[in-house]
Write a structure and sequence with these properties.
This is Microbial-type PARG catalytic domain-containing protein. The protein is α+β, with helices and mostly antiparallel strands and about 325 residues long. The protein contains 9 helices and 13 strands.
Length: about 325
């Protein structure tokens, strides 16, 4: 089909799983080069294909990079990743009862003698299978009977571990977010949406906010009015992201700051309603009348972007206080 193919003859092949989501082929190659003390590895000696969605990679090495085959693991920013010979077909048992033992799953009628690898992860049980037919059979059956439990079983992918992902341009701002409306209600009816589980990334937020902030233009009387259609929409979506992340934090009951988990207080807020039957404490009578700084206060209601009105008052020497970031088209 007129496609060029490069063959890595007698190359060593290995796979890496559960990689950091902020890594790429270039980062991985640099780490490998450092590990074998060869900073100038030829691209013909190493091939890396990184799948960010699944957080895994395949690495082929030969010639000057072949020495990396003797290493069993790789250190990625303090995270040690063990090299494996193949990628497994993975299943998940969500919210698995804690009383179920690993051995009972390994010796169950479905998995006995298959060499299945079983591990617990965040309340779930993950099963690694090497047999594709068995994997497809489990997905077709959908349930697993173990220790008088009927367990739901489904396909597992590390990409569904959204709690370990930080909000960035690739997984939100420059992809899915742009296709959304600036209305949180579209997400409220979808409580399992990944946006409620992503970790907050302040640097990515500030970068996107600066990117879509209006730039001065000498030929424009008001830049916000001219490019408001796109940039204003994007700024509202970015602010909506803050609200969605806050809702997610409230649902999870905690958030992280500098790799430290902060637990929210579970004590609910109390709402006190006052009406005509409420009893208020008597106040003292002021003997001297209050003095006001101005004799008169004028109020103007205008149909204009609040930021435009703010800048106009500043240019006239006033010191305005902006209380509400209103929509440019619906103040």
């Amino acid at each position: 089909d007129n496609q060029l193919v490069e063959v890595y003859f007698r190359a060593d092949c290995c796979f890496l799983e559960n990689l950091p989501t902020n890594f790429n082929e270039s980062n991985l190659k640099s780490v490998i080069a450092k590990q074998i003390n060869n900073k100038d590895i030829s691209s013909k000696s190493i091939y890396i294909q990184y799948n960010q969605t699944e957080a895994n990679a395949v690495v082929l090495t030969r010639d000057e990079a072949r020495s990396w085959a003797s290493f069993r693991l790789i250190n990625l920013d303090g995270h040690y990743i063990v090299k494996i010979d193949q990628l497994f077909y993975q299943l998940r048992i969500p919210n698995a009862p804690g009383s179920i033992s690993i051995s009972s799953l390994e010796n169950s009628e479905m998995f006995a003698g298959t060499g299945v690898k079983v591990r617990r992860s965040r309340g779930d049980i993950i099963l690694d299978l090497s047999d594709k037919r068995l994997f497809e059979k489990c997905l077709q059956k959908r349930t697993l009977d173990v220790e008088n439990y009927q367990l739901r079983i489904e396909a597992y992918s590390s990409s569904t571990h959204y709690e370990d992902w930080e909000i960035n341009g690739k997984n939100w701002y420059e992809t899915e977010m742009s296709n959304c409306k600036s209305d949180i209600m579209q997400f409220i009816c979808e409580p399992e949406h990944p946006i409620f589980r992503f970790k907050w990334n302040p640097e990515a937020f500030l970068e996107q906010l600066r990117r879509w902030s209006a730039k001065p233009n000498s030929n424009a009387t008001n830049q916000r009015d001219l490019d408001g259609n796109l940039s204003n929409r994007q700024r509202h979506l970015i602010r909506m992201t803050v609200m969605l992340n806050t809702i997610g934090v409230l649902k999870q009951g905690s958030y992280y700051t500098i790799n430290k988990e902060v637990k929210l207080k579970s004590k609910p807020l109390k709402t006190i309603v006052y009406n005509h039957q409420s009893k208020l404490q008597r106040a003292t009578t002021i003997s001297n009348p209050m003095k006001y700084p101005y004799k008169i206060t004028s109020v103007s209601v205008i149909n204009q972007d609040c930021l435009v009105a703010y800048e106009d008052l500043l240019s006239k020497g006033h010191r305005p206080l902006l209380l509400n970031m209103a929509n440019a088209f619906s103040p």
